[in-house]
Input
Amino acid sequence: MKRISTILSLFTLCFGTFLLSTSLIQAQVATPTLTEIELTQVESTGSATSTESAEASAAAVLEAELQEKKDADITTPASKEKSKLAAYLDEHPIGPLAWHNVLQHATRNAINNGLSANIIVLLILFPIIASIIATSRHIIGLQGFGVYIPAVLSVAFVSTGILPGLIIFLIVLLASIGMRVLLRHAKLQYLPRTAMMLWGVSLVTLALLLLASFFNVQSFLSLSIFPLLIIILLTENFTETQLKVSKEKAFNLTVETIILAVLCSLLVSSETVQQAVLLHPEVTILLVAVANFVVGRYTGLRLLEFVRFRSIMEK
Output
């Protein structure tokens, strides 16, 4: 019995010694020296610094891209495009006040007093856009949804960019058509039904922006509320017109409207055109008025009608 207790005591002592030695070895391995701590701190500091510098560089690039987009957006009064246009006017001084440059002196004085040059350019360009659309309908034969909708949509495309604007427009249009189909069974009156349509379209637009933020699509994240509201509010006009015509006719009208809006947005986005209308506002306004009078006096067939009735005309 005494031998057994001795053996158990020795075994316990050995086992305790083994555990103690193992714990000491692990402690020595796990406890770094002062040099190792310094090296680790240096490495961690260096990696943190490089990570911060990389993040700062990416943020700077992103901010530069967003600022460049804002600078090119003529629909934003606070952008640097104002300074570019104002600087262009300074590079091209005019003579003393006369009957043919009254508007030039007035616009330059307004810009010097704080009025945005972008606003002046847009107000001069908007009649040009309307005239182009009217000419395309009256002379060429393109129809579209009137004159107002393509003109306003083109300004929205200038702010959003053509591709993002087209995507938003098509998604909002599909959402409005879907909401109209859903509300058809609710049998609501006109005004509440219109409010519900805007409710659905707004939610779809919000979902689109949230999805763009999830995938970090910067062209959608930098949008302003102005073009979004224009596109959303125009959907009611589109859906109302589609109810009065066939599906094929509505599709053709939609495509022609998009074509006119894209062409006019390209015109408005041209820096050369902006500088020309700002430098010669009197000539621009008079030419637009004369062109509309000339187009308005035309009573013949449209160009597309010549193509359509060519077989009949040859007989």
